[in-house]
TrEMBL record:
Organism (species): Clostridium saccharobutylicum DSM 13864
Role summary: May play the central regulatory role in sporulation. It may be an element of the effector pathway responsible for the activation of sporulation genes in response to nutritional stress. Spo0A may act in concert with spo0H (a sigma factor) to control the expression of some genes that are critical to the sporulation process.
Location of the Response regulatory domain: 572-693, 721-838
Subunit structure: At low DSF concentrations, interacts with RpfF.
Family: In the N-terminal section; belongs to the phytochrome family.
Protein name in the entry: Circadian input-output histidine kinase CikA
CDD domains: HATPase_EvgS-ArcB-TorS-like, HisKA, HPT, PAS, REC, REC_hyHK_CKI1_RcsC-like
Enzyme class: transferase
């Protein structure tokens, strides 16, 4: 059902956007002939689109105390607003007219709730049967010229903000169109009166005998300058007008004579009142028998108001174009609604994958997860694209490790590359800055898109990601990135459209490889926002090279790691790999470290290098050996080396692909000291070499390896206290199930109000707070929790929300939350947050002596088997530290309300378990808490704690 509701909402908002766009387009082109017809059709469309009963438009008359209906619409079963359209007195609805003049809109959700002063309006609405009403003013240059009304006669309506915004935008189209048509009618009247111009025309007409001399003029032209006709005829301009006016007229007359043909010019000049007026002057030469200009006949139209109307219409056109931006904003809002069910899909698939499944079922789950990830990727692309279109996308400026961002992006696609049998390398020039300031997530997004495309469109060969930089002024680095593949390539004629939205080089690639065509368009915009450029070179069937650069501020230059490098001096290392790029990458990472580097392209060359240098200063100390080589693999090479006694002391490191990973035990059994996974990360490489040489403390590599790509379990130093605040049942079930799979539990609140109550009664290590909930949302709840806690304590609150728009994270932080995790939830991040925030508490086994003291009495009274009774006590002991800690905190903070609740809980549990001595003390503690006798509460708690211990 929810899918159908989302679909209905989707259709509804698309129809709204389409309606706004169509109305603006229609009223930009409408003329005086079809204006009324199109207006009636438009009101009908609006009425059916928004399920209204009646719509009407009034405009004020020349006498503003009267108004007249311009147009109306009503449903068939509803009476029209007015059967006869005639002038009506404004003062019959004094309160309503006053509200229209003073406000941007008048929204009446229920006419039964009108204020006392709306006496006439209440009676009118009652007679007409109006239940709800929305009035929007129509203005021209901020002057009220009329209003449009939307009525419901069937039921009250809550006029929502988005609906008022849509109808307000539409109302502007109405007022702009009417003003334009009114001006056009005036203009047409002037044109139609050309015949009358010859007989006392009000339009300006004159004839020039030369550039500065009038031959004749009409009264309108003379009147414009505050003069009489006789004052101008056969006179020189400089004898009639002031110097500025004469110069302006002479200048335009010169241009008209020079054209020597019918011409048109615009002139801004002052009239007799000193007002600047814009005249459109048309001229036509009258020639004598030999073709010389005898007179220049001129006419002038005052287009001042027309030009102002054109400016207003241009603004209206811009607003029409903003409908596309509204569409993009709508898509961004819809992504929130999509993320909520996506969270359910991802969560349940992950839970299902952890159950006992057949091979076929596991394959189905993998396919479902893959499809879900593709869907989420598309959603994220649409979200980013909509934010870019709406100009809402901004860049963060935070410090981050550049090398980690690059290496992690490459590593992300290594398994897929290995699965396809292609090599994926990364080469980062040694002097590339370590730390820069910018937006790491957006840089990662660009890299991920380009590398993902390279892997997708490459069937064999290799992909190489290289990074270097050129330092500019003021600590700004120009970072140059290149992603080179040996894939299918792109036709030359298709490259120009490659970075346009919803475009792929070849339609057939969409069918074969999938994709929306948004990724490169988004990447291009992100690169521009980072002050760079993106380009591509490609040969069909041979591969492509995507290049882009960005400008980032340098925070920390490349570290020289001097201490470690000094220890590397004069140590010889051999790199054995049949792939040239692999050897060069590893070799480049070791430059400047003091290591003497040797290379071998196969096992035979490696044996030759090792044996030929045994008794020299170039004796090999460390060999990094690729697992897969043409003549023999890495294991076979090591087996051969082990048969040679005088090279047994060489430290061996296995170099392996991502999906060929062995566990640490197997690697050591084959004679290797350690191993690295391609694509190699520089820091991992250096740390590995230092470790095998004994220059760095050896770490439990096997344990690291086996947990590297697995969701990290939370250390059970103590049971975490978790509160989940979530109104969506599916989301609750997922989180609870994931916690259960890690031997954890949580309390649940369905809204912010319940969360506030829970936190006031119990201490939590971490609270996962949804933001959009009924009764009280997450923002308000968090703010109240912070006020309640004050300086006494601080509960960690993590926003867990489907809001993923720019600024949503900051909104959560500003509300008082500590961190943010978006839906669909990354459970690895969630469990890391839990581990970080779980407080260390006393281990529950300290209270095991209560089993010895009270178990026999409990068994005797309840008749339970002793084993069952012990199990009940053990479960109680797990909860006991939290309960006693809470009582202690309440006493320390003089929080009698909390103390009363916890004492009541202790009274109930100890009574049930027949701990009579403790039960009686808990009864007394509750009573003293009610009376707020703090000294007695503290004394009783000491006795209770002693009995437990």
């Amino acid at each position: 059902m929810k899918g159908r509701e989302n679909c209905t909402n989707d259709v509804y908002f698309n129809n709204c956007i389409k309606l706004i766009h169509n109305i603006f387009q229609k009223f930009l082109d409408v003329d005086s002939i079809n204006y009324k017809i199109e207006l009636e059709k438009t009101l009908e469309e609006i009425g059916f689109c928004f399920n209204l009963d009646r719509i009407f438009i009034y405009y004020f008359s020349k006498d503003p105390t009267f108004m007249q209906m311009e147009c109306q619409w009503n449903r068939k079963e509803v009476n029209p607003k007015r059967k006869i359209q005639e002038e009506e007195a404004v003062y019959t609805l004094p309160w309503l007219i006053r509200e229209i003049k003073n406000n941007d809109f008048v929204a009446i959700n229920n006419t039964e709730e009108l204020p006392n002063e709306a006496i006439f309006e209440s009676e009118t609405f009652r007679k007409e049967g109006i239940k709800a009403l929305l009035i929007l003013p129509l203005k021209n240059k901020n002057k009220l010229i009329g209003f449009v009304g939307y009525e419901s006669l069937s039921k009250p309506i809550t006029w929502e903000e988005h609906l008022i915004k849509i109808l307000t935008d539409i109302s502007r189209a109405f007022s702009y169109a009417r003003i334009r048509i009114t001006n056009e009618k005036t203009y047409k009247a002037i044109i139609d009166g050309q015949a009358i111009l010859l007989n006392n025309s009000k339009s300006q007409i004159w004839a020039l005998s030369n550039i500065t001399s009038y031959a004749t003029v009409n009264e309108a032209h003379a009147k414009f300058f505050g003069k009489k006709k006789d004052d101008l005829e056969y006179q020189d301009l400089y004898d009639i007008f002031d110097i500025d006016t004469a110069n302006k007229l002479a200048e335009i007359n010169w241009d008209l004579f020079q054209n020597n043909e019918p011409s048109e010019k615009e002139l801004e000049i002052k009239n007799w009142k000193g007002e600047n007026r814009l005249l459109k002057i048309k001229s036509k030469p009258q020639r004598d028998e030999v073709g010389n200009i005898k007179y220049l006949i001129c006419t002038a139209e005052d287009i001042t108001e027309q030009r102002l109307s054109e400016i207003e219409l241009y603004k209206a056109k811009e607003q029409a174009e903003s409908a596309n931006i509204a569409k993009s904003q709508f898509l961004a809002n819809m992504s929130h609604e999509i993320r909520t069910p996506m969270n359910g899909i991802f969560g349940f698939l992950e839970l299902l994958q952890s159950t006992n499944l057949s091979l076929e079922q596991k394959e189905f789950i993998c396919e479902a997860k893959s499809a879900s990830e593709i869907l989420l990727h598309i959603i994220n692309d649409i979200l980013d694209f909509s934010k870019i279109e709406a100009k809402k996308l901004t860049m963060e400026k935070i410090e981050f490790n550049l090398r980690s961002i690059i290496e992690n992006s490459v590593s992300l696609f290594a398994p897929k590359a290995t699965e396809k049998g292609i090599e994926l390398h990364s080469m980062i020039v040694s002097d590339v800055p370590e730390e820069v300031i910018g937006d790491p997530s957006r840089l990662r997004q660009i890299l991920n898109n380009l590398i993902s495309n390279a892997v997708k469109f490459t069937e064999n060969g290799e992909i190489l990601v290289t990074v270097d930089y050129l330092e500019e002024e003021n600590e700004i680095g120009l970072l140059n990135f290149e992603v080179k593949d040996t894939g299918i390539g792109i036709r030359k004629e298709e490259i120009t459209n490659l970075f346009q939205s919803f475009t792929q080089a070849d339609a057939s690639t969409t069918r074969k490889y999938g994709g929306t065509g948004l990724g490169l368009a988004i990447s291009s915009e992100l690169v521009k926002m980072m002050g760079g450029e993106i380009s591509v070179k490609s040969t069909l069937g041979e591969g492509s090279i995507f290049k882009f650069n960005v400008r980032l501020k340098i925070a920390k230059r490349a570290s020289e790691q001097k201490n470690m490098f000094e220890m590397f001096d004069d140590i010889n290392i051999l790199i054995v790999d049949d792939n040239y790029n692999n050897r060069k990458i590893v070799s480049s990472y070791l430059q400047g470290t003091g290591l003497n580097i040797f290379e071998a392209e196969d096992s035979t060359s490696a044996l030759t290098t090792i044996l030929s240098n045994v008794n020299t200063k170039n004796k090999i100390s460390v060999a990094i050996i690729d697992y897969q080589m043409p003549d023999m693999n890495g294991y076979q090479l090591v087996a051969t080396l082990k048969t040679i006694p005088f090279v047994n002391d060489i430290k061996l490191v296995l170099l392996n692909r991502a999906m060929q990973r062995e566990n640490g035990k197997d690697v050591k059994e084959h004679g290797f000291s350690s191993y690295l996974t391609k694509p190699v990360k520089r820091d991992d490489l250096l740390n590995c070499i230092a470790t095998v040489l004994g220059l760095k403390k050896e770490e439990k590599q096997e344990q690291e390896v086996t947990t590297k790509n697995i969701v990290k379990e939370v250390k059970e130093l103590s049971k975490p206290r978790i509160l989940l605040v979530e109104d969506n049942q599916v989301n609750r079930k997922i989180v609870i199930s994931m916690l259960k799979s890690h031997n954890m539990t949580c309390d649940v609140a369905l809204n912010g109000s319940q969360a506030l109550k829970a936190i006031s009664e119990k201490d939590y290590d971490i609270v996962f707070m949804d933001c959009q909930m009924p009764i009280m949302d997450g923002y308000e709840s968090t703010a109240k929790i912070r006020r309640m806690e004050g300086d006494k304590k601080h509960t960690t609150i993590i926003a867990m929300t489907a809001n993923a728009m720019q600024g949503d994270r900051q909104k959560c932080i500003d509300a008082g939350m500590d961190d943010y995790i978006s839906k669909p939830v990354n459970f690895e991040i969630m469990f890391n947050m839990i581990e970080t925030n779980t407080k260390v508490r006393k281990v529950a086994t300290e209270y095991n002596n209560i089993i010895h003291n009270y178990i026999d009495n409990f068994v005797k009274i309840t008749g339970l088997e002793k084993e069952d009774a012990i199990e009940i006590f053990e479960e109680y002991i797990k909860c006991l530290p939290d309960l006693l800690s809470g009582i202690n905190d309440a006493i320390q903070n003089s929080d009698f309300k909390k103390l009363e609740g916890l004492a009541h809980e202790l009274k109930g549990s100890t009574g049930t378990l027949r701990m009579d001595s403790i039960h009686q003390l808990a009864v007394n503690l509750e009573q003293k808490a009610i009376k707020q006798e703090m000294n007695e509460c503290a004394r009783l708690f000491i006795q209770i704690r002693d009995l437990f211990c």
